[in-house]
Write a structure and sequence with these properties.
2 copies of one chain form a homodimer. In chain A, 54% of the residues lie in helices and 12% in strands. Chain A has 493 residues and is an alpha/beta fold.
Chain lengths: 493, 493
């Protein structure tokens, strides 16, 4: 862990002179922040009495407030409880070109809970590992995370609390919980060290700052923020922009083999279809209601070739469910705001609450498909995405969501037939655009990317269903029946 | 109320031919919707069994799903309960260029509640009036609201429910509540007519559609949507773009007189300031905590001349409150997304939940200040805004929020002194820009606009405090003491 320790007491005069310089540099930082492609998160943590609030007030005073967002964490609200843990963190990230100041953070609840009821350190370590993974995701995505731990001795903490209590104006700030923390100083310190050790990683380092001299503390944190920002700027200046690959090499050839081995000649007669549809819709409807009643959410992912019939399959699927219980998310090109955010950010926004269902018409897998092949992200980015996506889906399934993923597969010839049909049918014409033809020309490259996706993100808790879709009726029954079966199996576990 | 009644049964063949034409036109509508400056809301309501869900599924099939958002309303969540009623409605509006389809809507809860417990019609009427006001606000802002009431006779409803119940696949859809609705057909119909009568207003008309023939129903709604869209398009084509006024005439000269009569020569010595600050901070801190404990939220609005000291006053104010309980919202120029939305939309997003505090550094009053004077909106728009703002603040205060508004007033000479100081101090330089100088040159016009604002939006429940701010110490004490007093008074009521 980096140390930025200062021992000497600063005089007011020296402090004011240094603060004046720092303020000009901080505001300059904010001007430049609007030009760089990354966000800045400043997390302040430390024992009670270390002055987290005062420090943040000072920083807020030094910075241009229009470029700052302050976050703090209360105990989770009801809508936070019915979503996976990370959901609330993703919702409290600063906007483009802004600094996020965190009075509380993802560390707050973990530390607070531990203070209230002594927990097994193994449990705390597990929580810390989840935080580490979340921060790694942000840091890998380019976010600068500066984490400050304010050091304060037990004696100094006692003095602070007594001073606050003695003043009628500030006495209310000192709660019983604070005194409890004070008495448990040693134990909490040990826990905090464990958490810091686990979460001190490249891109999200902890910096210890001595908090006894308030002036020195404020200056040290401001200087640290400036230094880290410059370092991140240099890092980004060295990065080369992504390019579309000239040759697409598979990471896992087995995935592509699995895709191409799928028989596409299955068919279903209209009469058989009607009977099977009734049967499976009923079973799916019962399974979905049982899942909702158990507080489980359903997350459907539809990927597939253009014109593979995703829309039609989705409409049959949703007809089994009360319209108030589901939403369909059609994933289009990212908006400017979404482009500046982590690629998973916009999907977190649509993660359903417990007992509801979300259907993604295209999804986060765009990262390893179109973004990989069109050079919308760097090679290290899409290569990292398989693990990130697995971790994302694990957050969902660990929370109780049932994640059901489809690849709708059609032959190159059938796709051409459907494209031509679209081109000549007025109300279907809007479904066909230049990008569809571009993607069609890249079929061979896409087969490799799809294969890698299937091989690298097919996990028992979030499996891929490959659906032969040259025959629409057959495909729709396959979608309904695999959905019903996966939900039934998940509820039996 | 407009009628789009159809009695004859449609054959499947005729239906399919008409549907094909309508689909092409609907998709064309969606293409054009991306070019027009308004949003489209389609609200479907009607008795159980009228097929709201089926109708929406059909429309969703006909439209390009990428341009559609479907909304439905569950009973309010905890986070919705701790905000004013309108908060959840504002959060469920479609994005730019999209159609919002409402399976449930703001009508759902009102109708559902009435069905459960027979309520006094006066209460229902009151709810309907609030909905009417909300819709008027949206419609005045240019949103096209198409409201469809599906007509279904009691006999037809009974047949539908029995058919659904007989089929194992759909039996689950028929709940005890539905049968209860069926038995109360007459009473609920009367209530629904009352609600429709109250909420049938220009810009948000109800259209009755016969629902017994499902095919005719779907076609009628699609045609209605198309016709309404064309009408709105023509309306917008006739509108002339806003222009900055050549001469600014006061609406209420008394407001400007009140502003200019404010004595600016008050001063406070540093020693007096320190004592008064301690006293008022303590009193404010106690009052704020009492408000939070009572589940009341605090909404502060800071308006004033450039360089009047809003930032400094806000920092003193917030130092009385736990950082986890407040947020400061610095209102900058709207983002592209915000520009396309109703001007109040972005402020609703930041309305605090019960027991929290929000401080707006500039606010919705920009509509009647900078937007009026710079011609960012039309004359009818800013003239309407006074009433809209009063209604908005009334939503807040009716829900229990305490709304405290300041105008920080400095002389033209003092402003010049502060501008010059900013220009020569490195860490203050970013606070001064060309717009500040532009606004300064328009002082006379702004005095008129500020005067109108004070005269037209000063209500007992949300009063304006005029703060003489040439002396910063005096101004800060005034801010603290008026805040403490207003909160204390509000809690006594």
């Amino acid at each position: 862990m980096a140390k930025a320790t200062r021992k000497q007491r600063l005089t007011k005069k020296v402090y004011q002179a240094r603060a004046k310089q720092l303020r000009a540099r901080l505001v300059q930082l904010q001007v430049e922040l609007k030009q760089v492609p990354f966000k800045v998160l400043l997390i302040i943590a430390g024992p009670e009495g270390a002055g987290r609030g005062n420090l943040l007030n000072t920083l807020a005073e030094w910075l241009d407030p229009r470029g700052v967002e302050t976050f703090s964490y209360h105990p989770p609200t009801e809508s936070e409880q019915v979503h996976p843990l990370q959901w609330r963190f993703w919702r409290s990230l600063p906007g483009i070109g802004r600094i996020g100041l965190y009075a509380g953070s993802w560390y707050t609840e973990t530390l607070r809970e531990e203070a209230r009821n002594k927990r097994a350190l193994a449990h705390v370590a597990h929580e810390a590992e989840r935080i580490r993974d979340f921060e790694r995701l942000l840091a890998d995505g380019g976010t600068l995370i500066v984490k400050v731990w304010l050091n304060l001795s037990k004696e100094a903490q006692g003095r602070r609390l007594r001073t606050l209590r003695a003043d009628p104006l500030t006495a209310w700030r000192v709660t019983d919980e604070d005194w409890h923390h004070h008495r448990s100083y040693k134990r909490l310190g040990k826990t905090a060290r464990l958490i810091r050790r686990i979460t001190d990683r490249p891109g999200a380092r902890w910096h210890e700052v001595e908090a006894e001299d308030e002036r020195a503390r404020d200056l040290a944190v401001a200087q640290l923020l400036l230094a880290q920002f410059r370092q991140q700027q240099r890092h980004f200046a060295r990065l080369r922009p992504p390019v579309a690959p000239a040759v697409v090499e598979p990471l896992r050839p087995s995935g592509r083999r699995r895709l191409l081995a799928l028989p596409l000649d299955q068919e279903l007669a209209e009469r058989d279809y009607d009977a099977l549809r009734e049967e499976w819709l009923g079973r799916l409807s019962r399974a979905a209601r049982a899942a909702f009643a158990a507080g489980r959410s359903l997350v459907f992912v539809f990927e597939g070739w253009d014109a593979a019939g995703k829309g039609g399959a989705i409409r049959r699927l949703t007809s089994a469910v009360d319209p108030r219980d589901y939403s369909v998310i059609s994933v289009a090109k990212p908006t400017p705001e979404e482009k500046h955010a982590h690629y998973l950010w916009r999907f977190w926004r649509d993660v359903p609450r417990d007992g509801r269902m979300a259907v993604f018409d295209r999804s986060w897998y765009g990262r390893v498909l179109v973004e990989r092949l069109e050079g919308f992200c760097r090679e290290d980015e899409w290569k990292r995405a398989y693990g990130e996506i697995n971790a994302f889906e694990r957050e969902l399934t660990d929370h109780g969501a049932i994640v059901i993923k489809y690849w709708l597969h059609i032959s190159h010839a059938e796709q051409l037939r459907r494209f031509r049909e679209r081109a000549t049918t007025p109300h279907k014409r809007h479904k066909l655009n230049d990008e569809d033809w571009r993607n069609r020309r890249k079929r061979a490259a896409y087969e490799i990317a799809v294969g890698d996706m299937l091989a690298l993100t097919d996990r028992p808790a979030a499996p891929w269903h490959l659906i032969p879709a040259d025959d629409k009726r057959y495909a729709r029954i396959e979608v309904l029946s695999t959905a019903a079966r996966q939900i039934e199996a998940a509820l039996e576990d």
